[in-house]
Amino acid sequence: MIYSMTGYASVAADLPSGALTLELRSVNHRYLDFQVRMPEDLRSLEPALREAVSAQMQRGKIECRINYASRGVATTTTKLNTELLHQLADWSRQIQTVLHDARGLSVSDVLLWEGVLESPAASAEELRTAVLRLMQEAIEEFSSARAREGEKLKQFLLQRVAHIEEIRVAVAPRIPAAIAAYEAKLAARLREAMQGQDSDRLHQEVVLFATRIDVDEELSRLSSHLTEVQRILEKGGAVGKRLDFLMQELNREANTLGSKAVDSEVSRASVEVKLLIEQMREQIQNLE
Questions:
Q1: How far apart are the first and last CA of the chain?
Q2: Checking CA distances to 205, which of 56, 188, 247, 264 falls within 20 to 30 Å?
Q3: Where does the record locate the signal sequence feature (predicted)?
Q4: Under a CB-based contact definition with an 8 Å cutoff, are residues 228 and 246 in contact?
């Protein structure tokens, strides 16, 4: 399977103590660059999160966002701290025994007293377990999104490979005739310029130049590189760097084909092949 370096995943968990959300997003990058934004209380989890991501990705700039929102006091799970409540009542009686004019505590006074209302707080271990579980869920969703995008890119590249091969097959039969026509034209010009000169020398010059403009070897290497691109795409895995190298090789052959072209059709074919290679190269930058 081929993976794109661009992807997104978002997962959430509803804990008794609050809501936990985790997002993963990535873009293409030369190396693996993992950044995480999370509450400082969870910072100790960063090495484990980094390890989980690096086990799935080799390249890409990945951003992980973790948010934890604890529940407010208005939730139904909030309870009264009865022990503190009885302590406040006892303190209030003691104070009024000494200070007869002292006002007793009202209900609002008691409810505003820190610690009277208790909301269930997540333990460090509970949060750690929940975050790591969410990370695995996010990575699965993230990997699926990257795989879907990778398959689209694979089909895009295979279509361009097939198109380049069609151009190569169409151009190849034209080469001998194009070279022969150019040889005849060149020979006529040389005879005119080398009147009275040795005809063998004239023939040697024509043959030498014909050798220089023969693109059969370039077309053969072009075919070989295209076959290798297909093989890599079908094999899958981390293909980005290998395909990027092959695009350089393909572009070199296309440039040589254009520089040696002695026929307008061959020249146009070279330009079209270079455009297709550039389209492929741009998309390959997104592959892991």
A1: 11
A2: 264
A3: none
A4: yes
Q: How many domains does the chain have?
A: 3
Question: What b/e readout covers 195-217, taking b as 16+ CB neighbours within 10 angstroms?
Answer: eeeeeeebeeebeebbeebebee
pLDDT tens string 51-100: 999 998 889 999 999 998 876 544 455 677 788 778 888 888 888 887 77
For residues 257 and 199, state if they share a domain: yes
d(CA 76, CA 98): 38
φ and ψ at 269, to 5 degrees? -60, -40
Q: How many helices (H) and strands (E) does the chain have?
A: 9, 6
Structural domain that includes position 41: 7-72+124-146
The CATH number that applies at residue 31 is 3.30.230
Spans of the chain, pLDDT less than 50 = 73-75
Residue 241 has a CB neighbour count (10 Å cut-off) of: 14
Q: Where are the beta strands (DSSP E) in 93-223?
A: 117-118
Q: What are the b/e assignments for 97-115, b being 16+ CB within 10 Å?
A: eeeeeeeeeeeeebeeeee
* 165 & 100 share domain: no
Q: Which positions ≥6 away from 277 have C-beta within 8 Å?
A: 160, 164, 247, 250, 251, 254
pLDDT of the residue at 150: 94
**What is residue 89's predicted lDDT score, i.e. its pLDDT?**
85
